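Entry 14: structure prediction run for GIY-YIG domain-containing protein. Input pasted below.
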Amino acid sequence: MATNRCIYMGIGGPTNSLEVLYVGLSTRPNTRFNNHHALQAQNIKQFYIGEITTSGLPGRRRKKVPTDLDATEHALIAYLRPELNVRRKSTLPEDCVSVFSRFFGKNNWEKPKPTPYFFPPVIAFNTYSGEWHPEREDITDAADKAS
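Run finished. Output tokens:
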């Protein structure tokens, strides 16, 4: 993959219950994997690298990272709440965002593979209503139901 803009996910856990442990973004993926402490975690077993394909968001950039890449990372972290991510788990995206996932094999980038069980096929957040699709339980709601 020859890209200079990517989202990456570190996956780990027991084989029968893998989960996303870390979500990050990079505009220089060729150097990122050797220079980030969270990516050296022993419990990360595999990585998925994603390419963002969008026409981008109009307007001036307010951040160093392209706006569409930043919005995607924020939505994934806020929705999935990966264990190794420190920032963005408790904040909502600033704008409406939808992430449609398609996974491909290492050697075939034409035909998508089935979406892994640990990752939703679509994640969407509506800023105006404050709703996630598919609906996501808050950590406090899930804890209340468990007790």
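Notes: The beta strands are 6-12, 19-26, 44-51, 97-100, 122-126, 131-133. Will compare against the previous run tomorrow.
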